[in-house]
Amino acid sequence: MNFTLRVWRQDSPEEEGRLETYEATNISSEASFLEMLDIVNNNLEAEGQEPIVFEHDCREGICGSCGMVVNGRPHGPGEGITTCQLYMRSFRDGQTIYVEPWRAKAFPVIKDLAVDRAAFDRIIESGGYISVNTGNAPDANAVLIPKPEADLAMDAAQCIGCGACVAACKNASAMLFVSAKVSQLALLPQGQPERKQRVISMVEAMDAAGFGNCTNEGECEAECPKEISISNIARMNREYMKAKLFSR
């Protein structure tokens, strides 16, 4: 298969970016999108050109670092997948493919397709953890948790923090990410002692990072590789309202 790539190139956060054209030729339909980019980069290096910078790690849909916008969709066409799980058979032979980084004020471009997602780390550092002593594993297993709550907590815990929700949202909102982290702990007994302060601190850190607000259009849920439900956003809003009322 042969493709024409229109790839965003940006030398640094301070520089202006531009789309550049590359040819990807003799690509197997079974190659992943990242493997296709590897082939293109090998050819660029062989020609003495600078390779396209993009992030990756596990290449198994676990870490989420491979995030990029492919033909206008975070992680590309497909449901419930990361970019590393996107295969070239999803495209037509001869197709032109546009590849761009996440677009958000809070995710400044480092270079080319790589963006700085440290804002997510700062949100987690503000309260996305349990600091009280909950004992060791046997102690935790001794705490009975109703299955519906356990299932909801596990669903929220699937969030890998890739940022696709931010890239998909016209407001660059991080509400789905933050609500998943808030819900994950608010639903479990171990998360109760810090429940109120946690949601206040994480929402304030989200706002300070420059993310937009949610207007309930659902693009985040549609593009999330782990299919996190926007019902978590409603839960976080309730948690936040109760915490603020209690603090008064």
Give an overview of the whole structure.
With 248 residues, this protein is α+β, with helices and mostly antiparallel strands. It has two domains: 3-111, Ubiquitin-like (UB roll) (Roll), CATH 3.10.20.30; 117-247, Orthogonal Bundle (Fumarate Reductase Iron-sulfur Protein, Chain B, domain 2), CATH 1.10.1060.10. 38% of the residues lie in helices and 11% in strands. It contains nine helices and seven strands; from the N terminus they run ββαβββββαααααααα. The protein has helices spanning 33-46, 118-127, 137-141, 147-157, 164-168, 175-186, 195-209, 219-223, 231-247; strands spanning 3-9, 18-24, 69-70, 73-74, 96-100, 109-111, 114-115. The strands form two sheets. Strands 2-1-5-3-4 form a five-stranded mixed sheet. Strands 6-7 form a two-stranded antiparallel ribbon. A hairpin with an 8-residue loop joins strand 1 (3-9) and strand 2 (18-24). Helix 6 packs antiparallel against helix 7 (195-209) and helix 6 packs across helix 9. The longest helix has 17 residues, at 231-247. The N and C termini lie far apart (63 Å). The mean pLDDT is 95.
The fourth-level CATH homologous superfamily of the largest domain is Alpha-helical ferredoxin
Number of helices: 9
SSE order: EEHEEEEEHHHHHHHH
Strand order of the largest sheet: 2-1-5-3-4
- State Rg: 20 Å
- Per CATH, the class of the largest domain reads Mainly Alpha
* Global shape: elongated
User: How much helicity do the residues have?
Assistant: 25-40%
- Strand residues, percent: 5-15%
Largest sheet: 5 strands, mixed
SS-based structural class?
alpha+beta
Number of strands: 7
Overall tally of structural domains: 2
Beginning-to-end CA distance, first to last residue: 63 Å
In CATH, the architecture of the largest domain is Orthogonal Bundle
